[in-house]
Structure formats: C-alpha cells, structure tokens
Amino acid sequence: MFDFMDMDFNSGGETGEPSGSGPYIPDAGECMRCGMCVGSCPTFRLFQVDEETPRRRIRTIGKLLVENQPVSDAELQHLNNCLQCRACEPACPSRMAYGELFDRARAALASQAPIDWLAKLAFRVIEQKRWRNRLMPLMDLYLKTGLRTPLRKSGLLKKLRLAEAEALLTPPALTALKPLYPATANRRGNVALFTGCVAEPFDRETLLAAIKLLNAIGFDVSVPPQQGCCGAIHQHNGQSAAGLIANNLRVFNALPVDAVIHTASGCGAMLSEYRADDDAAVQLFGSRLADINEFLLQHWPEDLLLKPVDGTAAVHEPCSQRNVLKNQQAVYALLAKIPGLAVAPLADNRICCGAGGSYMLTHPDNAEALRTLKTQAVAAAAASTVVSGNFGCMCFLNADPALNGQKIVHPIRLLAGALP
Ligand code: SF4
Ligand code: SF4
C-alpha cells in the first residue's frame, strides 16, 4: 500500500515551491516526493501500491536519465505500466513535465534493446501511407467474409499477439478524401485539416463532420494528401518521431491557410508539443494549429442556428484534452448551441479510460480494468449520447461489448447532424 511515511522530503527539490510562470521542464531529480500526484494516477487506483505512482516512476526515470543507475525488472515493469495520461502533471506543485520525462526515459531504454517484429511492423504501417492504403481493403475483406469468428476461435490471433488489435477493427473507409472542400456559406477563409494516420480510414465520419461544419461557417478545407502520422505513437514508445514531424511541418507550413485543424485530441496534444531543429518552422506550425472545437466556437456565425435535438449528451473528457490541451470546456460551450440538448460531464472524467495510445494493445488487462470503470460511468449516465473528442478513446470504448451497442461519437458529429 501507498505509505506517506515513505516520503523523503530531503532529496530532490530545494524549496518545495512551485516554479513561476513560463516554460519550465524540471528534471527528474527535482521531484519533492510529496505524493500530491498519487491520487490522480489511474494505476495507483488499480493497484493501490506506491510502486504504481508517478513519484515512484519519476524516481526510476531519475535513475535512468540523471543518475545513470541500473533499473530492476520490477521497476521497469512499474514504469511501463504508466498510461502516459499525464493526470499527474496538473496535480504536481513542482510542475514536473512528466510526459516529457517519460518520453526521454523510453527513448533511453529503446536505445538499449531492439524492438520485436510486431512493434516494428506497427511502426512501419503508421509511417507509410502506402502500406496503410494496401492494408485497408484486406481488413475490409476480412470483416466482410465472415472469417472473423472462426479465426478468433482458432486462437491464432492470440498466438500472433494480434487479438487486442483485431478486437478494435471496424470497417475502414476505402476512398481517399478530396484535396479541397469549398465553403458552402459566405467564404471567410481557408483551413487545412489534419486527418491522423489511423483516424483517416477508421473515423471518417468525424472528419466529414468537421469538413461539413467548417464549410458551413464559411471556410474552404484543404486536406493535403502528403500529410502523415502526428508521431505520438513513435515518441511515446521511445522511437524517433523526427521524420514524421519534419514531414508535417513541411506539408502544412507550405499551405497558405488561416489554420491547421485537428479533430482528435490525442493527435492535437502531440502536434501542439512539436519540437524540431528548425525552430522557425515549429513556431509557424504552432501559430496556426487549432483544435476543431475551439475553432468552431471562435468562428461560429451568430446567425447560424442549429436544429433542436431532444436528449442528453454525456461528455467523456480524454486525458489528452484535459491534461495537455486543457480545452475541454470548448466542447460544452459548442454543444450548448444545440437547442434542447442537455449536456453534462461523464462521472469520474479525471480517470483515464485505459486506451492510452498503444497502451490498450500492450497492457490489455490494465486497460480493460479501466475501461470497465468508464463503461460503468456510461451506463450510470443513462444519456442518449456519449461524446469523446479523441479517436483512440472512442475506438477502445466502442469495442467494449458491455456498452450494448451504444456508440460513443465525437461531439462535432452531433453538431454536424444538427445543421439546418
Ligand atoms: S506531485 Fe510532483 S513533486 Fe510531488 S511526488 Fe508527484 S511528481 Fe514529485
Ligand atoms: S501519466 Fe498517468 S498513469 Fe502515468 S504516472 Fe502519471 S497519472 Fe500515472
């Protein structure tokens, strides 16, 4: 069990005072071991032991990055149990940049050990649009031919460690998005849409809803086909995302647009924290980057009235939205534009749903335990619709049979559906 007597106030930080405002990346040695992050951590909630807390993970990260000390297998396992939800960051009086420290630790570990064939394959598929384009018709065929049930029963998927990924499969979109969607109302400007590598085929409805809404408020939407994955899966798993970042900077910075819009908060969190050698390119990219909810809210025409929708919407707040983008209030403000719709937060929004990027595939038992808590909250909400602003969370939650067919959708799909 977690024990406050284990706290060591004499090591780490000097004053215990939070730092002033402005960018500040403390190193792992500056953790005060105060334990204020403990209650926010989903793995502590699951396991109730101090080894599964942010402060113990930071101690391990300190060994790796600062002290250059060996780390035991047990410490490594506890470190890897982290969902990278970053709920510990806002709770920390020292403003520990946990996400950044964790990525650095993962990169240090990855440089010491080769990755296995499955991870290598997954990284290549994420990197290469050509590979994804070839894979999608095969996935579609697999879902249509009825192979799914016998293959699942055969145990082969488990043997190949593909069972968790296969459980998430839904029919992919097989056609490419058009490069340009012109405004359907008085033209006010133009934007580019960041589609996401996996969301482009598997969450096409959200992307089309974004385009419809942006067009309806007077913006042309460009969808540059050369764009690629945001790089989050690579970076959070110790791989270099530099090539993916450089590609997106080049592609989007070359476009004469007013904004670059992202729809999935997981991608948005990564895009908003891009770092690269070319600082000017990062600055330009960041200055035009916008979250779909915030952009719509900011540019919504006063005379655009939506059709009424009876019912209630429960809002799931993804960790990337709450802890990194910190803009979840935009979702409530946007949905309030739909007459008749009652909007409320889902209970216990501060706890991760278990998806955690690739965590749902690498730590299926922990992810499942957290998803069960979330689907219980969904059932208790008894809402006509549950919305989530992150594709990864939606995908993982929607694959839970306990939802009994209820589908969690992106909030902008409700909005697009209510357009006159
Ligand atoms: S709240 Fe911050 S300073 Fe305190 S133990 Fe957690 S990470 Fe360390
Ligand atoms: S990122 Fe999330 S899971 Fe990891 S230590 Fe912080 S709160 Fe816990």
From TrEMBL:
What's the cofactor? [4Fe-4S] cluster
Catalytic reaction annotation:
glycolate + A = glyoxylate + AH2; (R)-lactate + A = pyruvate + AH2
Q: Does the entry feature the keyword 4Fe-4S, yes or no?
A: yes
Say if the entry is tagged with keyword Repeat: yes
Top-rank taxon: Bacteria
Class in the EC hierarchy, top level: oxidoreductase
Report the co-factor binding details.
Answer: Binds 2 [4Fe-4S] clusters.
| Any matching Pfam family | Fer4_8
Residue ranges constituting the 4Fe-4S ferredoxin-type domain according to the UniProt record:
21-52, 72-104
Instruction: State its Enzyme Commission number(s).
Output: 1.1.99.14
UniProt entry keywords in alphabetical sequence: 4Fe-4S, Electron transport, Iron, Iron-sulfur, Metal-binding, Repeat, Transport
- List, alphabetically, the SUPFAM superfamilies matched: 4Fe-4S ferredoxins
PROSITE patterns from the UniProt entry: 4FE4S_FER_1 (PS00198), 4FE4S_FER_2 (PS51379)
The cross-references to InterPro entries, in alphabetical order and at most eight, read: 4Fe4S_Fe-S-bd, 4Fe4S_Fe_S_CS, Cys_rich_dom, Glc_ox_4Fe-4S, Helical_ferredxn
Give the protein's function.
Component of a complex that catalyzes the oxidation of glycolate to glyoxylate.
- The identity of this protein, by name, is Glycolate oxidase iron-sulfur subunit
> Which species?
Methylomonas rivi
